[in-house]
Amino acid sequence: MKVRVVLKYRHCDGNLCIKVTDDVACLLYRTDQAQDVKKIEKFHSQLMRLMVAKESRSAAMETD
């Protein structure tokens, strides 16, 4: 239930790095492709919307 997401973008060389970890496993993805950068931006914005949505909080509490 606890996950950290870190996005790093270097404008000078156009690299984007996304790191997702739960302190047990760590996933890291790096790209310099514009198409991948746009997909990751869309994924990250959807993730942030879900994390702040009231519906997701109430659903998570019901499953616990």
TrEMBL record:
Record localization: Cytoplasm
Alphabetical keyword list: Cytoplasm, Ribonucleoprotein, RNA-binding, Signal recognition particle
Domain SRP9 per the UniProt entry, residue ranges: 10-51
Lineage: superkingdom: Eukaryota
Any one of the GO BP annotations: negative regulation of translational elongation
Keyword match Repeat: no
GO molecular function: 7S RNA binding
Protein family per UniProt: Belongs to the SRP9 family.
Subunit structure: Heterodimer with SRP14; binds RNA as heterodimer. Component of a signal recognition particle complex that consists of a 7SL RNA molecule of 300 nucleotides and six protein subunits: SRP72, SRP68, SRP54, SRP19, SRP14 and SRP9.
Task of the protein: Component of the signal recognition particle (SRP) complex, a ribonucleoprotein complex that mediates the cotranslational targeting of secretory and membrane proteins to the endoplasmic reticulum (ER). SRP9 together with SRP14 and the Alu portion of the SRP RNA, constitutes the elongation arrest domain of SRP. The complex of SRP9 and SRP14 is required for SRP RNA binding.
Name this protein carries in UniProt: Signal recognition particle 9 kDa protein
Species of the source: Chrysolophus pictus (Golden pheasant)
